[in-house]
TrEMBL record:
Annotated ranges, domain NAD-dependent epimerase/dehydratase: 3-223
Top-level taxon of the source organism: Bacteria
Protein name (Swiss-Prot/TrEMBL): NAD-dependent epimerase/dehydratase domain-containing protein
Organism for this UniProt entry: Streptomyces virens
Sequence similarity: Belongs to the NAD(P)-dependent epimerase/dehydratase family.
InterPro entries noted in UniProt: Epimerase_deHydtase, NAD(P)-bd_dom_sf
């Protein structure tokens, strides 16, 4: 089975590609802007006809699109998160219409959740900010493409390689910078929000199951831990692993606007359990340990 992973050097893409390479009989091709890429492609810039030629030559049985922008200006995010999936779908329709497309979306597409409630895939989408809005537009491009496609709406991934643009990655970077001493100070925003964290290894496993499933899948599947965790608990877990003995200063004044607007986020993963036979195998403690120690093992 030939499987193309777009964005294979990124945070999620590297984990997905690694897990796919361990799959018996799988030939994994990497697509992106890296010199190591088998397919040199920038979804934010490439023309559909050029991508179609490259896809025809690669002849993938499945494509996993992990390319995405989590930060930056709105134009960049729109180019990567919205234009990218739309161009990919157009090229696949021309060059490899039978290929399974697995696109990594985001729980940010839902927007604010109601405390105590898990959102299902049929819930209204009310994203806050450019990231959630551009990811939602990318999801629409995929689900209306007419292809054999599924969008995995990923919660807040935690694990090795988490970028500083993500909450876990930022906290880990701040802890490494501050050091463990009693004089160290960790200045953070409001930590009262609840988020649905998921181990990045579980995300990769879901992507592999989706790419290789022998049956049609629902258009959208939630991939998350299935429970809302106070951000404060994540910080406590990381500070314990770091042996941090300093002081934590929490201020609502320095909190990102999205944190204030989205105080609760939790996804219902029933459809993924039923459709993929998937459920999280790792706890949040497992994910935090892997993040802090830099481990990539399954």
């Amino acid at each position: 089975m030939r499987i193309l992973v777009l964005g294979f050097t990124g945070y999620l893409g590297a984990h997905v590609a690694e897990r796919l390479r361990a799959l018996p009989g799988a030939l994994v091709l990497g697509g992106g802007r890296s010199p190591a890429a088998d397919l040199d492609v920038d979804l934010a810039r490439v023309r559909p006809e050029h991508l179609a030629k490259a896809l025809a030559a690669a002849a993938p049985d499945a494509v996993v699109n992990c390319a995405g922008a989590t930060g930056g200006d709105p134009v960049t995010m729109a180019e990567v998160n919205t234009r990218g999936p739309a161009v990919l779908c157009a090229a696949l329709r021309e060059a490899a219409p039978a290929a399974r497309l697995v696109h990594l979306g985001s729980a940010a597409e839902y927007g604010p959740g109601a405390p105590g409630t898990r959102v299902t895939e049929s819930a209204a989408t009310r994203p806050v900010g450019s990231y959630g809005a551009t990811k939602l537009a990318g999801t629409v491009a995929v689900t209306t493409s007419g292809l054999d496609a599924v969008v995995l709406r990923v919660g807040n991934p935690v694990g090795t390689g988490a970028p500083p643009t993500s909450l876990p990655g930022r906290i880990a970077a701040l802890l490494r910078e501050a050091g463990p001493g009693p004089e160290a100070v960790l200045r953070l925003g409001d930590l009262s929000a609840h988020r649905d964290f998921v181990d990045v290894r579980d995300v990769a496993r879901a992507a592999v199951l989706a790419a290789t499933a022998p049956h049609p899948l629902p258009p959208v599947l939630n991939i998350s831990g299935g429970r809302a965790v106070p951000v404060r608990d994540l910080v406590r877990g990381l500070t314990a692993l770091a042996g941090f003995r300093g002081r934590i200063e929490e201020s609502t004044a320095s909190s990102p606007a999205r944190s204030a607007q989205v105080s609760w986020q939790c996804s219902d993963i029933t459809a993924a359990v039923e459709g993929l036979g998937w459920r999280p195998a790792h706890t949040l403690d497992d994910a935090l340990t892997a993040l802090w120690e830099g481990r990539r093992t399954s």
